[in-house]
Amino acid sequence: MTHIRPELGARSALQPISPALAWPHLPFGLDPAGVQAAITAKRADIAILESDWADASERAVARSAGRNGLAARETWDRSTWTRYLDAAAACPDRYLPRLRRLYAEIARLERLQAPLPAAAGRAA
Description:
By secondary structure, the protein is an all-alpha fold. The protein has a domain at 32-114. It has four helices and no strands. It has helices at 32-65, 78-90, 92-113, 117-123. The longest helix is centred in the middle third of the chain and has 34 residues, at 32-65. The protein starts with 31 loop residues before the first helix and ends with a helix.
């Protein structure tokens, strides 16, 4: 049916959605500060895991250094760096799965922060 019944009266045109009600950034129910806090916490977890991995590799090099001990990284020679990298490569199963999971979670959270395609058109 294409005609308007007279008893319904005249109708005004639909008003556009106000910017206050439009999705500015995130879907309803997601707190931007909460998403950012989650990203920050996951990045801190990554830093801890990477530090643990480096410490484990340094301990392995220190064990092989013997009595001389392990000096600062700036003074390491080529063989020390090779032992360090070999030790780091020997234990990726302890760290890489967790690191990959954390990086994937951060990527998902960052996609939530990205402006939605419809919101970008309304903002312009």
